[in-house]
Amino acid sequence: MITLHPVMLERDGIRLEPLSLAHGPEVAEAVTDGELWKLWFTSVPEPSGVAAWLETALAGHARGVMLPWAVREIASGRIIGSTRYHDILPELDRVEIGYTWYGASRQRSKVNTVCKLMLLSHAFESAGCGVVGLRTDNFNFRSQRAIEALGAKKDGIIRNYRRRKDGSIGDTVMYSITAPEWPDVKRHLEFRLERHAGES
Question: Distance from CA of residue 22 to its chain's centroid?
Fold first, then answer.
């Protein structure tokens, strides 16, 4: 059975710090990079909603169903996004990675690859996961492309599965990576990072 505890993860200039209330002001600043909360299909909070967003994430952690992180860029010292394990199912050796966002200036960079490599490595190699799931809104085409680029396999679409923050109900696209698939996915992600070697 998997065991998950808050842990700091770091590599390639990116640090995942267990999310805390102290991150609030930096998160509120990070969300202004691109005003991503205006996209109705994302879970990115607007600056005035960061406190409630933090409380929800930490409440999920207290219930044992979430493990959230703040994403810090070491060179600049700035928080540039957030991600988390969620829907943690120890009896199935399963977690999902989601609630992920990065400031617009860090998108299409190495950041997502680095973060996913750390999270997947920790899940499969330290926590003993048998499968890691990822999901996104049916209209979040950029997220779907990013998940597929990781090497995750599409499990299918669940219709009318999630109420969005604007009140509408959306379909959810489900993906997963299994433990036997992880070595090849890891090799693929390491190769992607090599191609980004020149990035800061």
Answer: 20
Contact 94, 139 (CB under 8 A): no
Residue pLDDT, tens place only, 131-181: 999 999 999 998 999 899 999 999 999 999 988 888 899 999 999 999 999
Q: Structural domain of residue 163, as residue ranges?
A: 9-195
Encode pLDDT of 28-50 as tens digits: 999 999 888 887 777 889 999 99
The verdict on residue 81 lying in a domain is yes
Domain CATH number, residue 99: 3.40.630.30
165 in any annotated domain:
yes
- Helix, strand, coil abundance in the chain, percent, nearest 5: 40, 30, 30
